[in-house]
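During the reporting period the student researcher (J.K.) took over the structure-prediction task from the postdoctoral fellow and processed the backlog of single-chain submissions. One of the processed entries is reproduced below for the supervisory committee.
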Amino acid sequence: MLKQDFYNVLFNEDEHTCFGPTPFDTNSYPIIDGINSQLTKFFTINPLVKGRTRKGTNVRYHRNLMFEIDNIAVEDQARLIKQSGLPFSTATFSGGKSIHWIISLTQPLEDRVEYTAVWKACYAALLKCDIEADTATKDPARLSRCPGVIRDNGKEQKLLKVGSRIELEELVIWLESHSINWEDFLPKQDFKPAYMQGETHSKAENALKIEWVEKYHMKNDRYEDGNYNYQYKMAWFLLATGMSVDEIRSYYMQKWNHIHENKPVSGASQSSVKCDTIYVPTMEERKAYYKRIEAQEQNAIRKERTIAAYASDIVTDINSDVQVDDESEDRYMCVGVDYWKKDAESDRLIKWNKTMFEKLYGANAIPPRLYDGFSYEPNYISKDFPYDLGARGQLRNKFVRPTRQIVKGDWSTIEAGLRHAFPEMYDMIITYCAIMIKYPKQCLPLIWFVGPENTGKSAVIKIFELLVGLSNVRRVNGKILESDFTGFLMDIQLLIIEESGGWKNPTAVMNMLKDLVTVQGEITVNPKYGVQQDYPFYGKVMMSTNNYEDIAIDGEATRFLFCEMETTPPQIKDYYKKIEAEIGHFVYDLLNEVDFDYPREARLYFDPKEYSNGAKDFLKDLAKTDLHSSIEAITASWFEKNPSELQCYVDLKTIKEELKKYYRANGFKQDYGDKDIKVTFKKDFNIERSGKLTRPDSFAFLDPIKGEEQVNPERRSSWWCLERSQILGEDAIFDSTNIMT
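J.K. obtained the following C-alpha cells:
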C-alpha cells in the first residue's frame, strides 16, 4: 500500500488541505505537497478552501468522516470495527493508542449541518456495537495522522488499509441495519423569533422563500420540461410560505417561461390538503441564528480539546478549565485587507472570513480594530501585554503568551530531565531558561543535542517547547535550511531543527545558523506563500542529531553549545503529562528564585568558555581537515621546542616549507595550494593575516656565521599569529609563564 493511494482516496489532485509537523499548524497546501513531504505528521481530513487556514468554516467539501477510539486496546478496536461492519475507506495506526478510521464519500455532503448529522448517526450506530468514538472527531477540519511517518516515540504511523470511496446510499444501508436514520439527527430549523405574536409568515423577501423551498423541500425532486407534478408541489410549498398565487406564477414564467396547461398553481391553492405553514427567516434572523450556532459549536470544540485528541506525547499550553468568552464583535480585527478573529482561550489569531463576519454583524459592519500589518514582540511577564505595536499602535503583535498558572510548586520531573541532559552545566542551563522568559530578546547559544536514539533528546527538548509556549515553537526538518523559503522563521521563540546534517552545502547552512543565533532585530524572510519582507526575529535555535558525523563545524564554534546524550534516561511514567503539569511551577522559580547578572557584555550572554566541553572538543577534532591538523601538529611541535614563547609568527612561504617537511617525515606526499592554506587559517583557526610588516620569522634561522651568534632574521611579509593557548590549550599559558619566571 502506498501513501499516495491513501491521499487519492480522500482527496482530488487539485485540492488543498492543511499539512504540518505539529497539531498546531494551520496553513493549507496542495495535496501533492503533502504526498511528497517527509516533514508532515498531520493533515486535515477534508479539503480546505485554497489559501484559507484550518477551521470548520473553511472546509470546501464535506467528504470524509473520521472516527477514533482511544479508550480500549488497539487490537480490540480493530476487532470491534470489523464486527460492526463500518464501511470505512482507510485505516491508519496513529503510532500511539488508536486507529484512525475514515469514511470517504463519492459525493460530498451539502454542508456542515448534514455532515454533523451523518457523523452523529454513525456515532450512535457504533455505540450499539459497544464502540464509543471520540466526539472531537466530528469536526470536519479535524487533524489525522499522516501514514508512513515515524513519531517521536519511535513508532510508525502505519497505513493499515486503503479501500475506496463509498456512496452515501451504502452508508445509509449500514445505518439502517442498526435502526438508525441519519435525518433524525438534523437540527430543527426553528428560526421563528419568540417575540412574534400570532404571525405565521415571515417578512422575508420572495427570493429567500423560493431558495428555502428549493433547498429544504424540493431537494430530492428534479424539474423536467412540462412537469406538472413538480410545479404543483413547489407551488403547494410556496403558498405555505405566504407567497401569493400571482407571485408564484410570475416566478414560474421568469424561470421556465412556461406554466403547465393544467394550471398547477391554481390547483395547489385550491387543494383540500393544505401544507403546514413554512416560516422562512429573514437575513437578520439568519445572522442571529448563525451567530448562536457558531458560538455553541466553538464552545463544544474547545471543551473537547484534550491532550488525547492528538496523541499521548503531544501537550498544549491551553488550560482546559479556561472559560470561553461570549461571542463579541470586539474579538474581530482587520489586518491589512484580511479578517482575523481572536481565539477565546488564548491570544492566538484565527484567519477569518469576511462573509462570515458580515453574516453575523451585517454587510456594512467593519471590525472594531484595524491594523496596517503584523509585527512581533515577545513578552512573558509584563502585566500590560503589548498587543498594539508601532509608533501609533498600527501593528498587531503576533506573539502568543502561553496560558498557565505560575505558582510555587514541585518540578522534580523537569529537573530530572535537565540534569540528565546537562549534568555538568545544570546551573548554566537553569539561567539559560530564566533568560528565555525574562529577557526573550537576548541572543543565546544554539543548543545542539547529539547522541544515539532513545537517549531522551526529544524528551528534554519538550521542556523548552513548553517553557516558551507551543504556539511559539516551530519544528522543521534539517533539509529545509537549504530551501529558498524562510517563512518558518516568522513568529517564533524557538526553532527546533530535527534530522540535522547531510546538507549539500554545510558551510552555507552553518553560516545561516550562526547569523540566526546572533541576529538582533529584523531579518529578511521569504515565505512560500507571500512576499519577501523584513520581520523581527528573536528565536532561540535547538538541533538534534543521532550521528556525530552529521555535524559540520569549523573554527572555534563559539555560538554552539553541544549537549552529548549517550545514556538511556530514567523511565518516568506519564513523563509528558508531568512536565506539562509542572511547567507553571518551573516558570515561577525561574522568575523568583534564579539570580543572575543582566546584562553582560557577551553577545550570547554566556562566555564561550562556560559552555565549552569535551563534546565540543571532540566534534571540533572530528571536523578538522588534514591541512588543519597538520598545521596544528607543526606549530605544537614548535611551541614544545620553545617553551618560553607565547606566539608563533608564520607567513605563506614558511608554512608551505614546513608542511613539505612534515609530510616527507611522515611518509606521504601532499601538496596544498596557497588558497587552501589561506582558507584554513581564516576558517578553521579564525586568524586573519596582518598587513605588510617587517618582523622575525619564528621558524627561520640563518646558518651560524663564523664567530657570530645565531640570528633570527627579519623579513617583510604578511603574517599569521598563532597563540600557544590556541594550539596547546589554556593550561599551556601557565606552564609557559612558570618556565619564564
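The committee noted the following: The first strand starts at residue 16 and ends at 20.
J.K. will present the remaining backlog at the next meeting.
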